[in-house]
What does this fold into?
Amino acid sequence: MAEDLRIITDISKEEQYRSIIPQIKALISGENDQIANLANIAAALKEQFKWFWVGFYLVKGDELVLGPFQGPVACTRIKKGRGVCGASWEQAETLIVPDVDAFAGHIACASASKSEIVLPVFNNSEIVGVLDVDSEYLSHFDDIDAKYLKEIVGLLDA
Ligand code: SME
It folds into this structure.
């Protein structure tokens, strides 16, 4: 496995996903340690998109617990149904939040975060965590992000 990523940024967002997804596949193929794979996915996405915060929360009992991430320190535990992450877990749905201040119950880990997308991560049809991406810009995420991030978390589904 080559550890150096090829990061191309002067292309559309869709093309950036198409460029990074095969590299993410290569990074995690042949490695069955979930934490190692989550860590490399967070790092690859951060390098490609320079988002404010990108990382995983993992289901532990009735809570989400902070997992591998890239960005500023974050809150460690989120109850089911709480915040965008807990809501995505409870609803088993991707949630795109264009303005976090307009989302009732949003958990502000950092005041710089303005918009957010959260996707459930499945393993054998069970939700084992969520992928959370935060941006310092309003309305930063759309259906293109939802589509390709879903493809990325799908790589983790055994
Ligand atoms: N804003 C999230 C909490 C996690 S941090 O953004 C990293 C939420 O409302 O669930």
Notes: The first helix runs from residue 13 to 28. The pocket of methionine sulfoxide is lined by residues 53, 74-75, 78, 83-85, 106-107, 109, 113, 116, 132, 134 (CB under 6 Å). The two ends are 20 Å apart (CA to CA).
